[in-house]
Amino acid sequence: MKELGAEVKTALLPFLSHVETDGLFITGQNPLSAGPTAKALIELLESKTTENNSPDDDGQQWQEKAEKYLDEKPGDLKP
Predict the structure, then answer these.
(1) pLDDT, tens only, 14-70
(2) Beta bridge partners of 25
(3) CB 24 within 8 A of CB 5
């Protein structure tokens, strides 16, 4: 990931919980990070739900963002 330009951040001590969030990307460093990572995801989803509470928004906007994101990724990173 570093070769592709990613900035890698780790916990100060190995095997301690460490979570990083960048936009819609949330990652945990190790198994101790599972709970805090889940909490970060829930907080992100709750914040996006309250921001986008319009009656016309049925998830279409999220689908379009996801498709745009996948279209911009190099072929070897696509699922």
Answers:
(1) 888 999 998 889 999 899 999 999 999 999 998 887 766 554 555 667 778 777 777
(2) 22
(3) no
Alpha-carbon gap, residue 54 to 30, rounded angstroms: 37
pTM score over 0.90: no
| Full DSSP string of 22-76 | ETTEEEESSGGGHHHHHHHHHHHHHHHHHHT--TT-SSHHHHHHHHHHHHHS-GG
The conformation of residue 3, written as its DSSP 8-state character, comes to G
Residue 16 carries which side chain, given as an amino acid letter? L
